[in-house]
Amino acid sequence: MAFRRKSLLLCIGLLAAGLAVFLLWPSQKQPRVGLPDGSSITLQGVSYEKRLRLRAGNEWRDHLGAMLPESLARKLDARFITFGGETNALNLWLDWDDYRTWSAPNLRCVAVDEHGCELGLDTPSFHMVTPRRQVMTVEFKEFPRRSKQFLIRLYQAGTNNSWAVVAELPVRNPAQRPAQVWKAEPLPIRQRLGETEFSLLAVQTGVMAGRLPLAPAKPGEIGGVAVTISWAPSTTPDWEWVGIKGITDALGQTGASGGYVSSGIGRDRIQFVSGAGLCLEEPAWKMELQFARASNFSSNELWIIDAVPVPPPSTNFITDIATERHGVWLHFRGIVPVDAREPRAKRGMNKPAAHVVCTNLPPDLQFTLLKAVNNDGRELRPIGTSRDGDDFVFGLALDSNVKTVDLTFAMTRRVTKEYLVKPTRIPDREFQRHR
Questions:
Q1: CA nearest to 123, candidates 221, 260, 256
Q2: 431 phi, psi to nearest 5 deg
Q3: Are 271 and 227 in contact (CB under 8 A)?
Q4: Contact 314, 338 (CB under 8 A)
């Protein structure tokens, strides 16, 4: 009897709570956009560092459960989906009603600030709630944090690898906050390492990420940044640029996603292109560039392996020579022939290659092949490096008559230098010059 009484009281309480929530629920109209096929997309919820709960069914308990606390919704057996709550992340919930197909559309979503800059390009997650209602959830780690309101732009895949805008909806920013303003240094910005001076010459946006020669940015694609660096002296510098650690702004947002591609420009400069994803109108970006020693190594940074046999085509002499440098274990596995399919890092490289397994290499260490000398004493310049997990391969320009080769590897620490720079948009004439 007591159990029935508790159950009855629970039901009465749930219904009362549901009615109260329903009556008090705000009637504010949610942003909505109609599509040419008669369907519509509505922004249903926005949260910052808080979990969102959305209805995943169409029964009365599902509707009621969406308005009740989660513990009560579970007791009702309401169907719902929870997401979000990650640190420093903005989450959106969008409904696509009168959805006309069963398969999820190929979409990309991006936040757009008042300057037209796009941040946080990503692919939404889809949840089929009913046959005619698709729910989309999106998480942004980068979005216009200074803005009171910004746009959500949805791109849909078209023909010829293009993307077209299918919808734009306004969003009130629940995480707007003031932030410090960085002051950019005038270009060129110079930093010295040893006897080598590195100069940051240009930081330019409006390009596609990961593309060389430079290509104009395209709608729906990740925007890139082209960075040009020079060094002096140009003959035998004792340090060299080895990568980019990241790009950040004063709001703590990050760019440089998806790695980078680089190309030398003459003898004393290099240009690389990575993802950007930050607002061009920020007073300054912080470029964190990484450098490593190129000469004058100490003995504990070098690993020399003499008289390594060069296998004939289609054969592979497996070796296992091991050492330790800076707490990292290195296993040399031999020279991999041109037609080898393993390791995976070798695929696509049309030269023989030295294969080293480098276990748990931390990001602040640089591992490279410095020098290769054949059995006649002629030095061979290493050509191309590839990595797949712990496997490193270093391409070698070996003639058919080379029987053995002496290899010198280096393990040295990377040094990060910071540059505060104001990015600019690349002029159209630059694309013509790079074609």
A1: 221
A2: -65, -40
A3: yes
A4: no
The arithmetic mean of pLDDT across residues 265-276, rounded, is 88
Q: What pLDDT is stored for residue 63 in this prediction?
A: 80
Give the pLDDT of residue 24: 38
Give CA separation, 260 vs 144, 225, 253, in Å: 24, 10, 18
- Alpha carbon distance 208, 210 (integer Å): 6
d(CA 17, CA 136): 28
- Predicted confidence at residue 433, as pLDDT, reads 63
Whether the Cβ atoms of residue 70 and residue 127 lie closer than 8 Å to each other? no
Domains defined for the chain, CATH in brackets? 30-50+85-172 (2.60.40.1640), 189-295+416-434 (2.60.40), 299-414 (2.60.210)
Place of tokens 């060069």: 310
Beta bridge partners of 192: 197
**pLDDT score of 80 more than 90:** no
User: Which amino acid belongs to residue 419?
Assistant: Y
DSSP 48-98: ESSEEEEE---SHHHHHHTTS-HHHHHHTT--EEEEE--TT-EEEEEEEES
Backbone angles phi, psi at 319, to 5 degrees: -125, 170
Alpha-carbon torsion, ordered 18, 19, 20, 26, to 10 deg = 90
Contact yes or no for 108/122 (Cβ under 8 A): yes
Q: Which amino acid is at 312?
A: P
- 380: region left, alpha or beta (phi > 0 left; psi from -120 to 50 alpha): beta
SS3 57: coil
Q: To 10 degrees, the CA torsion angle through 348, 350, 356, 361?
A: -40
Q: What is the pTM of this model?
A: 0.81
308: its two tokens = 């390594």
Take residue 43 and report the two structure tokens written for it. 């922004």
- Three-state secondary structure of 151-211: EEEEEEECCCCCEEEEEEEEEECCCCCCCCCCCCCCCCEEEEECCEEEEEEEEEEEEECCC
What pLDDT sits at residue 15? 54
Output the CA–CA distances (angstroms, integers) from residue 145 to 118, 141, 178, in the order listed: 12, 10, 8
Quote the CA–CA distance of 84 and 392 in Å, as a whole number. Answer: 37
Q: What is the mean pLDDT of residues 155-162?
A: 86
Condensed to tens digits (0 to 9), the pLDDT of residues 186-214 reads 999 999 998 899 999 999 999 998 888 99
Give every strand in the sheet of 125-130, ordered side by side.
32-34, 40-48, 90-97, 133-140, 125-130
